[in-house]
Design goal:
9 helices, alpha/beta, 194 residues, Rossmann fold, five-stranded parallel sheet, binds adenosine monophosphate
Length: 194
């Protein structure tokens, strides 16, 4: 069983790669963004509380996302967990370490998808366009203005995790600018070694 974190800015390709790992390796994707969007759509109390924060591209509180992850960890995962969009702060990283340890689990790799900011703006525009073409609702935070805020939140709160996981020797950086298949191959190599 392999547990990994996919780290990287918005639209780096974390969700795309996570979905491939779910299909190919039976891993379980834990995306706090998906969980929060679900809560928002179904109109739960928590969903209502986080809606405005998410629409502005800011981070919701550590307590909320740590709670969501804690619940999912209870359910277990034979093929291992993929943490996608979590942790996003140092506090969340500490909490994840503690939660895993409590369950007798460990982190096998933290994979950073390294991409450049200019490309992200183009990717987000493309994602919104493709979603619209499929007749699906476009993410409210996939606009150039909100993306800028999401990038700021990333550099302020999440980028320090690169140093954090470098220090714990879990960090592996891969080229997130490569095409989707090449990124998948790079991730597969890491997982096969883990
Ligand atoms: P994502 O789908 O990962 O891009 O997340 C969408 C939005 O959900 C983010 O812009 C945040 O507002 C919120 N969010 C998702 N994951 C977290 C997290 N781990 N910590 C704080 N906020 C989060």
């Amino acid at each position: 069983m392999t547990n990994i974190i996919l780290l990287g800015p918005p639209a780096a390709g974390k969700g795309t790669q996570a979905k491939r790992l779910v299909e190919g390796r039976g891993m379980v994707q834990l995306s706090t963004g998906d969980m929060l969007r679900e809560a928002k759509t179904s109109g739960t109390e928590m969903g209502k509380r986080v809606a405005a924060v998410m629409d502005r591209g800011e981070l919701v509180t550590d307590e909320i996302v740590i709670g969501l992850i804690e619940e999912k960890l209870e359910q277990g995962a034979k093929g291992g967990f993929i943490f996608d969009g979590f942790p996003r702060t140092l506090k969340q990283a500490d909490a994840l370490g503690e939660l895993l340890a409590k369950k007798g689990l460990s982190l096998d790799a933290v994979i950073e998808l390294v991409v450049d900011d200019a490309a992200l703006v183009g990717r987000v525009a493309k994602r919104a366009e493709e979603t619209r073409a499929q007749g699906l609702p476009v993410r409210q935070d996939d606009t150039p203005e909100v993306l800028e805020q999401r990038l700021r939140a990333y550099y302020k709160s999440t980028a320090p995790l690169v140093g954090y996981y470098w220090a714990t020797k879990d960090l592996i950086q891969i080229d997130g600018m490569a095409d989707i298949d090449s990124v998948s191959v790079a991730i597969a190599k890491i997982l096969d070694k883990a």
